[in-house]
Design a protein that fits this description.
The complex is a heterodimer of chains A (333) and B (215). With 333 residues, chain A is an alpha/beta fold. Chain A has helices at residues 46-68, 87-104, 113-125, 161-171, 178-187, 207-215, 222-248, 263-275, 292-304; strands spanning 6-11, 16-23, 28-35, 77-83, 108-112, 131-135, 140-146, 149-155, 199-200, 203-204, 252-256, 279-282. Chain A has two domains: 6-118 and 288-324, 2-Layer Sandwich (Nucleotidyltransferase, domain 5); 130-285, Nucleotidyltransferase, domain 5 (2-Layer Sandwich). In chain A, the strands form three sheets. Chain A has a five-stranded mixed sheet, sandwiched between helices. In chain A, a hairpin with a 4-residue loop joins β2 (16-23) and β3 (28-35). In chain A, α3 (113-125) crosses α9. The radius of gyration of chain A is 20 Å and the shape is globular. Chain B folds into two domains: 4-84, Phosphorylase Kinase, domain 1 (2-Layer Sandwich); 89-209, Transferase(Phosphotransferase), domain 1 (Orthogonal Bundle), CATH 1.10.510.10. Chain B contains six helices and ten strands. Chain B has helices at 40-63, 91-94, 100-119, 154-171, 176-191, 193-209; strands at 4-11, 15-22, 25-32, 71-75, 80-84, 89-90, 122-123, 132-135, 139-142, 149-150. In chain B, a hairpin with a 3-residue loop joins β8 and β9. The longest helix of chain B is centred in the N-terminal third of the chain and has 24 residues, at 40-63. Classes of the chains: A alpha/beta (333), B alpha+beta (215).
């Protein structure tokens, strides 16, 4: 039996510390993780997230190896999320990745977190050359691939959709995970409350919407506010997506990232994909939130195309932009 | 709304464009169709507002010296605008295939037009090369004023020019630097260096405010 390349990937950009092992044939052999959950009404504290990660890291690494039934010596490459994200949290994953790579004498592979979101979605859905909408705490961007890079066609001009939902939930004392709980409350909302709808070309802006929604705290029914917030925020993004779809004329639309799990958002995007005769794909819900698998799989693809970084140069990049990353393994466009 | 021989020529993001014959004239009917994804209250409000507003602003743009299709009729019930048919080629398809000096001239001209709009307090709101039509080797028509509004604020001007910059860097990335430089040149020429620099500073500021911008 010929040897299949095996990659171990470490995710630690924000609240999730995840380790996953994947093989060249696209099998996710394990995907272990532990999530730091801040107290109700509080956001992620970077230092506390980092402390959480360093306390559970060894357990998660062992868990990933055990679940995959892989020995550390059989791993061909160590991938880690080099950015973007919270500095202290990123440093934990990077430190462990560097230690493993040095100890095992294996190449260290830098992975951009959002490219991980895209690649794991492409792997699990089979999308080939999609217009991709990444919606998470760190990203809200519409990207399509052209000549070596993902190009940004539209994005948020301020906070992300994940930020919007999380910050709203936090201020309304809705317990984490904010996005999921806002979605549940919204299901029981009935009355539509007018909120600012801001689309700028292919871009959206959510900060004004957040302010307006927060001002209505205790003035209206929470369920109605959640419903209206979702309707406006998602409609804005769906409109921007439709603009990008019309402009790029892509025949596939791929939804990925943490907020991708939201059923209402999926429903809206599906409707415009159908209207433009594009196939609609949503990332497997197991891998929509931050996870080691997204890093391991993107890392494996990068490793096969010779992407690696020297340990002494592997500084984390908390503000690494998606469209600054060369992607040699993608041919389309 | 009397029309015959309706032919769908473009399915845009928010409207369908039909080529039709209207009182013996070849016209474009831009119809804002219902969006199933939006709840009705929101959808109705957005479509009506944009239809009326677009027609008004296209007319205002003419006063600023910017070529836009002439409006013949606005149908508030159908959310449709009947306008002049501009036979030309979208800048999106044209730009990359031009000779270098032609490309620079075209970008200069685009910059000037944006300057003209801004000078009169019009923010286009959706500056992409899909929304510019080139005819007769000289004239550029601006279309799609659905997201336009009136403002003299630096923030709005900056945000407008940033959309143009993004359109060039994503769709015309091969020639991005030269193209955007020429757009800025033309813009400066029209609106004056002082005003132009204010807008450009805002462009930088807005970019830095965005996600993961290097500061």
């Amino acid at each position: 039996m010929s040897h299949k390349i095996i990659c171990l990937g470490i995710e630690s950009t924000a609240h999730t510390f995840g380790v996953s092992i994947v093989s060249e044939d696209g099998k996710i052999l394990s995907d272990a993780k532990d999530v730091y959950i801040p107290p109700v009404g509080k956001g992620i504290h970077p230092r506390e997230a980092a402390q959480h990660h360093s306390q559970i890291a060894h357990k998660i690494v062992y868990q990933a190896l055990k679940d995959a039934k892989v020995k550390l010596k059989d791993v061909d490459a160590i991938a880690f999320s080099m950015g973007p994200g919270l500095g202290p949290a990123l440093r934990v994953g990077a430190t462990i990745a560097r230690a493993l790579a040095t100890f095992l004498n294996k190449p260290l592979i830098p992975v951009h977190h959002a490219i991980g979101h895209i690649e794991i979605a492409a792997l699990t859905t089979g999308a080939k050359d999609p217009l991709t909408l990444i919606v998470s705490g760190g990203h809200t961007a519409l990207v399509a691939f052209a000549r070596k890079r993902w190009r940004v066609f539209g994005e948020t001009e301020d906070i992300t959709l994940g930020n919007l939902l999380d910050m709203f939930a936090r201020e309304m004392n809705i317990p984490p995970p904010g996005g999921k709980n806002v979605e549940k409350l919204a299901e029981n909302g009935e009355k539509f409350i007018d909120l600012p709808y801001i689309v700028k070309g292919n871009d959206v802006s959510y900060s004004g919407l957040l302010t307006a929604a927060l001002k209505l705290k205790n003035a209206v029914k929470l369920e109605d506010l959640c419903f209206s917030l979702q309707e406006v925020a998602f409609s804005m993004l769906t409109e921007a997506t439709e603009r990008c779809l019309a402009h790029t004329e892509k025949k596939e639309l791929l939804l990925t990232g943490g907020v991708a799990a939201n059923k209402r958002l999926q429903e809206m995007l599906k409707s415009i994909a159908e209207e433009h005769n594009a196939k609609f794909y949503v990332v497997d819900p197991k891998f929509s939130g931050d996870c080691g698998a997204q890093i391991a799989w993107a890392g494996l693809l990068a490793f096969k195309y010779g992407v690696k970084i020297k340990v002494e140069e592997s500084f984390i990049k908390p503000k690494w932009r998606l469209d600054k990353v060369d992607v040699p393994w993608r041919k389309t466009g | 709304m009397e029309k015959n021989g309706l032919k769908l020529i473009k399915k845009g993001a928010e409207a369908n464009l039909y080529l039709a014959n209207w009182h013996g004239k070849e016209v474009i009917i831009k119809k804002r169709i219902q969006k199933k994804y939006r709840i009705k209250a929101l959808d109705e409000k957005i479509r009506l507002y944009r239809t009326i507003h677009e027609a008004q602003i296209m007319h205002e743009a003419k006063k600023a010296g910017v070529a836009t299709p002439t409006i013949f009729f606005v149908d508030e019930i159908e959310k449709a605008i009947i306008m002049e048919y501009i036979k030309g080629v979208r800048v999106k398809e044209l730009l990359d295939s031009l000779k270098p000096n032609q490309r620079i001239n075209l970008c200069l001209e685009i910059g000037k037009i944006i300057g003209k709009l801004h000078k009169k307090g019009i923010i286009h709101g959706d500056l992409t090369t899909s929304n510019m039509i080139f005819i007769d080797n000289e004239k550029i028509f601006f279309i799609d004023f659905g997201l336009s509004f009136y403002s003299f604020r630096e923030e709005d001007r900056g945000s407008d020019l940033l959309l143009m910059k993004r359109a060039l860097s994503s769709t015309h990335f091969k020639f991005f630097n030269k193209c955007f430089k020429s757009v800025v040149e033309g813009y400066k020429e029209e609106i004056g260096i002082k005003e132009a620099l204010k807008t450009l500073n805002k462009v930088n500021e807005i970019e830095k405010r965005g996600r993961y911008a290097e500061r």
